[in-house]
Specification:
- By secondary structure, the chain is mainly alpha-helical.
- It has one domain.
- The protein is built from 3 helices and no strands.
- The longest helix is centred in the N-terminal third of the chain and has 24 residues.
- The mean pLDDT is about 90.
Length: about 70
């Protein structure tokens, strides 16, 4: 179990909610048969087999968490 202080924990929870909200908003607007097919493929593809573009999208999200974890608290 990771130990983080309550302030950091709440920042991470808020970031997760923001990430989820942004995704749901985007998905709601872009809910097309083509996107659904792509999302199904991505869901069923291990990270190591994603394209570099898809991997970079995940990396961009992780950097947001690392920024919070790297803060002096």
């Amino acid at each position: 179990m990771y130990k983080v202080n309550e302030k950091t924990f709440e920042k991470l929870a808020a970031l997760e909610h923001e990430r989820w909200s942004d995704w749901m908003r985007w998905m709601y607007i872009n809910n097309t048969p083509e996107n659904i097919a792509r999302w199904k493929r991505q869901m069923n593809t291990p990270y190591k087999y994603l394209s570099e573009h898809e991997k970079e999208s995940d990396r961009r999200e992780v950097r947001k968490y690392l920024e919070i974890l790297g803060e002096k608290t």
